[in-house]
Structure formats: C-alpha cells, structure tokens
Amino acid sequence: MKSALVLGAGGFIGGHLVKRLKREGFWVRGVDLKFHEHAETEADDFMIGDLREQEVVRRVIDRRFDEVYQLAADMGGAGYVFTGENDADIMHNSATINLNVLDACHKRNIKRVFYSSSACMYPEHNQLDPDNPNCAEDSAYPANPDSEYGWEKLFSERLYLAYNRNYGMECRVARYHNIFGVEGTWDGGKEKAPAALCRKVAMTPEGGTIEVWGDGLQTRSFLYVDECVEGTTRLLRSEFEGPVNIGSEEMISINDLARMVIDLSGKSIDIHNIPGPEGVRGRNSDNRLIREKLGWEPTETLRAGMEKTYAWIANEAQRRHNLH
Ligand code: NAD
Ligand code: GDD
C-alpha cells in the first residue's frame, strides 16, 4: 500500500486532500497544530504537532513516504496577511516549517514533496491594472511581492528547488490562486473573500446591506478546492517541477462576486464599499504553462463552486445562530 503524508491536514485544503488520498487507497498520515474544525479526519493516523519544532518533524517523518504534501503555513485572507500586523510571525513560522520539513525529507531519502506556494509571490507592479494583471510564471523576477507572506513563499519556493538541484530530490512547486469551497475558514479573521461574502450575505436579512472592502473594482480569480486537489496530485506525480499556477482564469471584480452571492441567496441586499485591507489591485491565474506541462487545467465555473460554498456556509451560520 502506498503511503502519503499531509502536513497541514487540519486545515482547509489539507482536509480535502486527505479525503482524496484515502479514496485513492493510500495509507495517510495527517499532521497539524489542531484537529480540523469542520470535519472528522479520514487520515489513518493524525498527529497533533508543531512543525516549527525540529524534533516533532523528525518524529512525523519517520519513514519513507511515497508522497509528501507540505501545506502547513501561517496564512489567511487579506484581513490577516495584508494588515502588516502579523508579518514577523508569518515569515518566521512558515519558513521554519519549510526548513525543517525539507531537512527531514532529505535525510529519509524521500523524493516527492509537494509545496504550496501562492500567487502572492508575484510582483506588485504587474498587478496594478485590475483588467489586465500579469501572473505568468516567468514574470516572478525581478521580485516585488506586495506582502511579507509573498516574500516567504518566494524564499521557500527557491528552497524546495535548491534541494532538487543539490540533493536529487523531486519537489514540485505550485502557486495557488485563492482557493475556496466547503469546509473552509469562514469567520474569525483569516477567511478569504468568497467565504467572507457568503457569511455576510447569509447573516444579513432581506433588504439589508453588506460591507465590502475597497471600491469593489479590484479583481481576482477563485478556484474551487476539488480542482485544486486534482491539480496538486497531478503535479506531484508529473515530471514537471514547476513553479506552476494552480488557479482559475475566470477573473471577476469583488463587487461582482458579492452580487453573485446575493443572487444565489435569493435575497435583495445592497453593497456598501468601505476601506479595508485590499492587497493587489488585480490578479488572475495564467494557465498557459499548466496546460502545456500537464495537459490539464480547471474547468468548473465560479458560480458552480460558489453555489456549493454558499449553501454550506449559510447552513453553518444558521447552526451557530441556533446554538446561541
Ligand atoms: P489553512 O490555514 O486552512 O491550513 C494550513 C494549516 O497549517 C492549518 O490547519 C494550520 O493549523 C497548520 N499549521 C500552521 N502552522 C503549523 C505548525 N507550526 N505546525 C503544524 N501545522 C501548522 O490554509 P489552506 O487554505 O488549507 O492553505 C494550505 C496551503 O496552501 C498553505 O501553505 C497556504 O499558504 C497555501 N495557499 C493557500 C491559498 C488559499 O487560497 N487557500 C492560496 C495560496 C496558497
Ligand atoms: N477577506 C476578505 N473579507 N476580503 C474582502 C472582503 C472581506 O470581507 N471584502 C472585500 N474583500 C476584498 C479584499 O480587500 C481583497 O481586495 C479581495 O477581496 C480578495 O481578498 P482575499 O480573498 O482575502 O485575499 P487575496 O485574494 O487578496 O489573497 C488571498 O489569496 C492568495 C492567493 O491568491 C490570500 O488568502 C493569500 O493568503 C493567498 O495566498
């Protein structure tokens, strides 16, 4: 039986990845600081541990796993990574995890390690025009990410690829573009726009108003988590090391995303744009490279993914409301 290790298995994407690997017949070990908040883990073995601790990482990586997925990071949406208040923690925590994990994998002679970088590593100067952002993989340098979170991702991308060159590892690096879906963070300050807007609409009565950060004309693309997991496993098992975008090319403004959610809710709700952490002005995945290298790209529409996500968050919000 093949074995897989999912680091960050108590998180959003890690939780979905564990389910997928179990369906494929893997023996799966999951590791996280915490248990998953929204679902029982399906991992055969779930270890609670802090991957900033070298000793913990050595205990976790105690055998030669066939596949390792490194998703653990100190991360969140715009309200967490773009305020500047968490910069030191974000850089220290995530870089320490990556340094420890690579060292332990190399010593166990593990070859295939997946690393989840982010579109946040792209230079700010290519993302000033909301209608025409440039996120082609080869636009990464000269580097100029707009957040320390992005700088850490860029450093760690380089670290994984250095282990490939110097130690014959076969790490694979993806740049995720805003992943959303069911069983993700939807409140508490780390949630991203799709979940935050679903929550706001779900909790607003007919005829009410929701607040949306910025002028709402900033653009993004969003990828449903199932397609993210599909791209992740495909990349790890391919002969292409990356870095490569895993994202959707269906770009939308944030106010239009809010209008989509309002429409899905069936309610009549107004939008009030207020100041807030905004991040880059425009961002969209560029899927030319993934099409060329993997012969695959995501195809699900944003609306189809948002429909599932809104239904799940509206239900969670209702359950919480009933509890109080
Ligand atoms: P998440 O926050 O839900 O999951 C990350 C998990 O890592 C959390 O459960 C957290 O507890 C765990 N973790 C953090 N520090 C740890 C530590 N010291 N030891 C053990 N576990 C620790 O985030 P996610 O959305 O599932 O993202 C997974 C990965 O993908 C992250 O590396 C993130 O930076 C990257 N990424 C995500 C997105 C997105 O839109 N979700 C976009 C770009 C990149
Ligand atoms: N989170 C959030 N909550 N964002 C909002 C809200 C709200 O209530 N209202 C409007 N927005 C706007 C933000 O101001 C931002 O301009 C845009 O929606 C998208 O915000 P997020 O989804 O939070 O983050 P992001 O796309 O800027 O960055 C995210 O994606 C990266 C990968 O593409 C972050 O999660 C990064 O950590 C991630 O790496």
Automatic annotation (TrEMBL):
> Is NAD a UniProt keyword of this protein?
yes
The organism encoding this protein is: Maritimibacter alkaliphilus HTCC2654
UniProt-recorded name of the protein: UDP-glucose 4-epimerase
Record keywords: NAD
Residue ranges constituting the NAD-dependent epimerase/dehydratase domain according to the UniProt record: 4-247
- Domain of life according to the entry: Bacteria
One short Pfam name that applies is: Epimerase
Alphabetized InterPro entries for the sequence: Epimerase_deHydtase (IPR001509), NAD(P)-bd_dom_sf (IPR036291)
